[in-house]
Amino acid sequence: MPEADRRALRALSMQSGAAAPEDPSAAGLRPSARDDSGTGLRPGVYPERSRRARDDSGTGLRPGVYPERSRRARDDRKSTVIPSAAEESSGAIAPDHLESVRSTRQTGTRRTAAPAPSAPAPSNPATIGARILRSKLFSPGRPLFLIALVVGVLVVTAVVVFFVMRIGTVTFDEPLYRYENGVRIDYEGTSSIRHEEDTFFISSGGRETELPHAPVYFSNDKGHVFLPNQMIYVDPTGTSPLRRTGYNTELVRTAAGDGGGGAAGGTTGAASAAGSVVAHVNGEEATLTGGFLFDGHNTYVFLEPMTVIWGGQEREMPAYSFAVVHYNLRFELYPQFDEGGIVVEQNGEDIVRAVAASGAYTIDMSKDILQTTEQEMLLFTEPSLLEFLG
């Protein structure tokens, strides 16, 4: 027996008055750590604990037997310190931590503090989109719902687009023609005209072309004209105030001599001889007798015979003819039914005028001025601000 154990036994026997036993285990004492060869346990007496202590190499658990608990124990020891019973009884432990400490002592496990709450993710489109993609709505178990949702959205969009385009589209099953840049352009068969805001397109034979702000004529009906864009109706000799046509307005001319005073216009001798014009605007009808239409920019449509004069030259223009005048640049004249128009490049000096056959008024188309025997006035240039004809 080692000398240290003998001395301990003697001291114990002297206090209790009993003889010291030769076997230290009889006195309830553990074998000396020195007998354990540095492991803290006696080899052969506690083989399993001894082997575990040697194999654990400082981790507290036997590798290979409890690998997960071994890693967790190492992590716990780094983050948690269990106070002693004396510290617990002294009141040094916070009340909210006392329950965790008692549970640790009873179960032999260690509890770590709950992690601090993370900051809320920023509410930006990318974050919201990611949350939606991670939600149950996009789980693998709901493919049919997603397909139905996407198909429903596409169907609703297609229906809306279809009706919007139908509202602004007019289809004609007869040949049409129009003028542009001095050339007549004919359309055979079925044609469709549509508009997107203030831009117009004509489709025929599978081809779509942008339209200028100018009339479209019917090849088989000389008294029928289609106006895609809004225009201002001006009656220089009547009592009617300024009014406007709507999009997709049709003009139909009556027989010569049948016209008279109408709901929207007065009467001149030349206009009556040429016949009055019925304008179909937004489902309403308005009778126009004489005067002209102006788009507020460069285009004039004559509703009665006119004579256009410029630089010592002149040209007779029948009713339904139109002119496009770009001040100091050029002007274009398009008599109805002609195979082409007249395009004149200006030198900046000539003024282009249109004189009514009755002589009652003159239009300075270069400066947009109306001249009558009584007054001279600038033409209005904003059709959208006026009330409709009818």
Written account of the structure:
Strand 5 and strand 6 (207-211) form a beta hairpin. The protein is of the alpha+beta class. Among the domains are: 27-66, no CATH class; 222-390, no CATH class. The chain starts with a helix and ends in a 12-residue tail after the last strand. It is rod-shaped, with a radius of gyration of 52 Å. The strands form 4 sheets. It has a 7-stranded antiparallel sheet, with no helix packed on it. A 7-stranded antiparallel sheet has the order 10-9-14-15-18-19-20, with no helix packed on it. The chain has 8 helices and 24 strands.
Helicity level: 10-25%
Q: What spatial order of strands do you see in the largest sheet?
A: 3-2-7-8-11-12-13
Number of strands: 24
User: Which residue ranges are poorly predicted, with pLDDT under 50 across at least 5 consecutive positions?
Assistant: 31-37, 162-166, 257-263, 265-273
Query: What is the percentage of strand-forming residues?
Result: 25-35%
Question: Biggest β-sheet, characterized?
Answer: 7 strands, antiparallel
Overall pLDDT metric: 74
First-last Cα distance = 130 Å
Radius of gyration: 52 Å
Structure at a glance:
This protein is α+β, with helices and mostly antiparallel strands and 390 residues long. The chain has helices at residues 3-16, 47-56, 67-79, 85-89, 95-107, 125-134, 143-167, 269-274; strands at 169-172, 176-180, 183-187, 191-196, 199-204, 207-211, 216-218, 221-227, 232-234, 243-244, 249-253, 277-281, 284-288, 292-294, 299-302, 306-310, 313-317, 322-326, 330-334, 342-345, 353-356, 361-364, 369-372, 376-378.
